[in-house]
Design brief:
Elements lengths: L2 E7 L2 E6 L4 E4 L14 H23 L6 E10 L7 E11 L5 H15 L1 H8 L3 E9 L2
Parallel strand pairs: 5-6
Antiparallel strand pairs: 1-2, 2-3, 4-5
Length: 139
């Protein structure tokens, strides 16, 4: 996997992958940024959750469960001193489905975090506690 980054202006960066798709990054104004894009740590957190969600969607669909809506609210805690690594991530999943049960969602999340999600594994192997809650609503 290869990517290229370039300075756009101030602290704003543009990352480009091998397909030419761009991801902007910026910083907070207190360090010269403009808040025009997510910070690298925000993207890192979003990426881990997106990886988990994609695994979960794939697992539920393989089990022939209908997904009407899937959302997750995420909160995180970082270390007080540098490097300010993530120390805990809490994800609250909410699935709307006519046929999925809470056990289906929890099993999909378990499989993602234990077997499939490389991003989650990176968080966990760094010492970050990754936890979730799940709610299934009939749709």
């Amino acid at each position: 996997m290869k990517v290229h980054l370039k300075l756009d202006h101030n602290m704003r960066l543009i990352a480009t992958n091998a397909l030419g798709q761009e991801t902007p990054f910026d910083a907070n104004p207190d360090i010269g940024g403009e808040n025009s894009a997510p910070t690298p740590m925000q993207v890192f957190l979003q990426s881990m959750v997106a990886c988990t969600m994609m695994d979960t969607i794939s697992i539920l669909r393989k089990r022939r469960k209908q997904i009407d809506e899937l959302q997750v609210e995420v909160s995180s805690t970082r270390a007080e001193s540098h490097p300010k690594v993530f120390t805990q991530v809490t994800m609250n999943f909410h699935l709307i489905s006519p046929d999925a049960q809470l056990e289906d969602l929890n099993r999909a999340l378990e499989l993602s975090h234990q077997n499939y999600c490389s991003a989650s594994a990176m968080f966990q192997r760094s010492g970050c506690k990754v936890v979730w809650t799940a709610v299934v609503e009939k749709g």
